[in-house]
Amino acid sequence: MTSICHNGSADDAMLDAARDCVLAVGVRRTTMTDVARRAGVSRMTLYRRWPDVRSLVGDLMTREWLAVTLDASPTVRTPTAHPTLGALVDALVDGVRAVRAHPLFRKILDVDPEMLLPYVLDRRGASQNTMLEAFAEQLARAHADGTVRADHPVRQARSVLLVLQSFTLSLRTMSDEADAELTEEAFLDELRHLLERSLRP
User: What is the pLDDT of residue 57?
Assistant: First the structure.
């Protein structure tokens, strides 16, 4: 995902318009003309900020994912916080639940899953790097006070994110809502156990 640099409400308005377009028709059927019209700006204004729909949607995904993960999880985001292991793990699991429930994520996963593949197979995006920075900082603090098993904080943060991404992207391939033991919530409970056991001192 591209690095997102807000220029205030004008950028937010264009990103909001892009979100509305993607929710309506998907990424592949969204055009810069559609976004500009919905945002009430000229196409040139939009092109001065983003060269194409893909880069625009990349910034949109960054904004949306961070809003529902770090912004919704002050336990992870706040560097001065000293949560218990349980609270830290709950925040991570809540982040997975929030992304999976997000309308934009669901639309892209259903209609344009190829948009997500580069950030799984080839490179990290801006939202992933921001999350990793927050995770590593929080883990380092948790090592110091004995909340979490001491280890290399960057490697540990990356390992945690790998697990979180797997549950976020692939959970529906393993869950079965007709079986109470295999529902998404049951798997999120399992994720909580995996993280607690991995991070316990």
Answer: 96
pLDDT computed for residue 47 by the predictor: 97
pLDDT at 75: 60
Position 10 scores a pLDDT of: 85
CA–CA dist 153, 139 (Å, integer): 6
Q: Give me 84's structure tokens.
A: 């218990």
With a CB cutoff of 8 Å and minimum separation 6, the contacts of 179 are: none
Q: What single string gives the DSSP state of each residue in 142-156?
A: HHHTTSS--S-HHHH
Inter-axis angle of helices 9-25 and 32-39, to 10 degrees? 120
Which of 118, 147, 162, 149 lies closest to 27 in space, CA to CA?
118
For the chain, the farthest-separated pair of C-alpha atoms sits apart, in whole angstroms, at 56
What ranges in 7-102 are assigned the alpha helix state H?
Answer: 9-25, 32-39, 43-49, 53-68, 74-77, 85-101
Residue 51 token pair: 């060269």
pLDDT of residue 1: 40
Question: From CA 185, how far away is CA 161, in angstroms rounded?
Answer: 19
Backbone angles phi, psi at 7, to 5 degrees: -110, 35
Which residues of the chain are under the pLDDT cut of 70?
1-8, 71-82
Q: Output the six-digit token pair for 132.
A: 């990793």
